[in-house]
Amino acid sequence: MIAGDAQTVIQLIDVEKNYRVGTEIVRALRGVSLSINENEYVAIMGPSGSGKSTMMNILGCLDIASRGSYLLSGHDVSRLSQSKLARIRGTRIGFVFQTFELLPRTTALKNVQLPMMYAQTSNKKRRALAALERVGLTDRATHRPNQLSGGQKQRVAIARALAQEPDIILADEPTGNLDSKTGDEIMAIFDSLHTEGQTIIVVTHEEGIAARCHRVIRLLDGRIASDTRQTPAPATNPIQEKATVA
Amino acid sequence: MIGRILRFPGRLVRASTSTLLRTGQNVLTAFVQIWANKGRSVLTTLGIVIAVTSIITVVSLVDGFGQYLTKMLRGYGTQYMIVNPYVPPAMRGRGMRRVTLNIRDIEAVRTECTDLRRITPFVFAQAEVAYASETAEDIPIRGVTEHYQTIRNFFVDAGRFFGPVDVDNGAYVCVLGRSLLQLLECDESIIGDYVQIGDARFLVLGLLQSKGSVFGDDQDKTVMIPYTTSLKLWPERRDQVPFLAEAIDEDHIGSAEAQINRVLRERHTIQAGQPDDFRIDRQDQELKQFDKVRNIATGVLAGIVSISLLVGGIGIMNVMLVSVTERTREIGLRKSVGGRRRDILTQFLTEAVVLCTFGGAIGVGFGYVLTNLAALHPQMVEVQVSSWSVVLGIGFSAGTGVVFGLVPAFKAAILHPIDALRHE
Ligand SMILES: Nc1ncnc2c1ncn2[C@@H]1O[C@H](COP(=O)(O)OP(=O)(O)OP(=O)(O)O)[C@@H](O)[C@H]1O
Ligand SMILES: [Mg+2]
Predict the structure, then answer these.
(1) For residue B396, is it within any domain?
(2) How far is A236 from chain B (nearest CA, A)?
């Protein structure tokens, strides 16, 4: 609960989120408090409609809480202006979506450079190529999304999230649109990023994926039902093994 | 402090290069979008194309005529005016005494009007001209003095003009316009020979330089003789002699006109409040006349252009609204990776402007083609597309892009990132 803690990256204090649908009010989050430290590897689980995406969107500064506060690296971001939030999204947060969200008719390299366009980062190309290398897609840099497989698209999206060296990577069901083998490959990338020190939060429905994480938070009806730390299960995927060994 | 000052230009350069880069990126994105929707883009820019085509064509034509007319009038001198005996229509047959303008009036104007440099009576008649076996009918015969050449900028380029002695004596001498050579089927050897004008024989002293034709009126189909001789041939004109008067310079045309007006009213004893019995036509006002034509053309052009820009603009707005809806998820993504409202706004505004400018460029192309087609017509004056009309056309189309792109761009900019990403 201490804002100044150097280890704490994320801190939610009594966060509520209400949506108004017509005259009805949907209480998607009903008082969520949690803190996540640097280099944690967290799985968010819970039944459909429990508020996982809602929480992720608030964590990603894509949306703001109706009540409560959100400290990102000790700074309260719950009352910031639109443009300041945009800047945080562009520099401190890497979002990975279930549906990849790559720009059509745009090469993998240009897609990875997109956040840098807005943040006016220098050395765009070099950084983007480095990010593509980390996800093993150097040879696909000039390919367009329609020339890539689902797994490759998601890897481009991860490279895009990585390119700005964000404080956290937020992935909302990153394997939801992929078969289990490709999903494993994607998770292997997250595993190795975590090994390199990245803070990662993954929303998932699959226990097998949650098992790879060091901490599992379960949501139920907009509240945290459980929050457990665990020793990650040994990898079943050869790629992942290689990554952890390295 | 000094360090900060020294760093400042560097920061400025970096900031402006990144703005430039981003603008370049936006323009590139715009071209990708236009290319991806080729058919739609071309159709929506139709209004803009029409607007710019009309701007280029009309401006070029009006400009061409204007320059032609200015050059022509300059060529004939713009510092002179023509004074004619004249009864205002309202006074006709109301017992106003017979209008006269005679040589004594002209002499008085010459001596009393200090702002005049030259003056010449101008007796106009038409007659048959014959040489050897050839005759030419209805040739304009101008009875003038030697000053006429300077006032009208109309000199001989072979032989000589008649001089003051010929005028004083009412000599039977003449100079011929170049077209007479064709009409009479002869060459320059006619100088020194005699032609028959009406019933009299005239010695040909010289040939006038060629002036070409003005709006189909052949300036070279003329014969000039001393006005004194004209009055001998047509004595009934003695009381109806128009004259040409040249001001000392362009700034004194108005005051010279006033002087003529005063002298003639005095001599004709016209009471204050009574209308003049003469009319002074200033040549520089011919130019003003053309300005009226130019204004009408500009008005009509403004009408066409504003309607087609409006139609074109609404088309652009519509297609941009469609584009924003189609690309809602893209907007959501751009926002989620750090795009601010103003970034999205500029992106879509740039797209609208590029689309419009693209239409404008096509319009400029069509304008060139139409202008050059018009120039092919044999009776056409020399026209060419003026660079400022191109600037005007492109400027107007870009402006339309800004105005009509604002609503869609704003709609895109204020989208909520999550709502946009959820868009189906
Ligand atoms: N924009 C919105 N407007 C209204 N209600 C919303 C909106 N977004 C989410 N909700 C509601 O908030 C609740 C939580 O939704 P959320 O998307 O966070 O669930 P989730 O845990 O991500 O579910 P899933 O596993 O299906 O993705 C749901 O009841 C949902 O209907
Ligand atoms: Mg969800």
Answers:
(1) yes
(2) 33
pLDDT digits (tens, 9 = 90+) for B281-299: 887 776 777 778 788 888 8
The answer to the question of residue B335 being in a domain is yes
Domain count, chain B: 3
Torsion of CA A184, A185, A187, A188, to 10 degrees: 120
Q: Tell whether pTM > 0.80.
A: no
Q: Between residues B105 and A236, which one has the greater pLDDT?
A: B105
Chain A CB within 8 Å of residue B27 CB: no
Residue identifier of the C-alpha nearest atom 18 of ligand 1: A51
For residue A62, which residues of chain B lie inside 8 Å, CB to CB?
335-336, 417-418, 421
A85-94, A151-160, B76-85, B224-233: range with lowest mean pLDDT: B76-85
Instruction: Tell me: do B183 and B141 sit in the same domain.
Output: yes
For tokens 């009776």, the residue is B379
Query: Domain range holding B176?
Result: 123-240
Lowest mean pLDDT among A190-204, B11-25, B44-58, B119-133: B11-25
Query: How far apart are the C-alpha atoms of B177 and B211, rounded to whole Å?
Result: 9
pLDDT in tens, B334-385: 999 999 999 999 999 999 999 999 999 999 999 999 999 988 887 777 888 8
- Interatomic CA distance for residues B54 and B46, integer angstroms: 12
Which residues fall within 8 angstroms of residue A147, CB to CB, at 6 or more apart? none
Structural domains in chain A, sorted by start = 38-63+83-244 (3.40.50.300)
What's the complex ipTM? 0.92
Nearest-CA distance A140 → chain B (Å): 21
Of A57-71, A124-138, B246-260, B277-291, the range with the lowest mean pLDDT is: B277-291
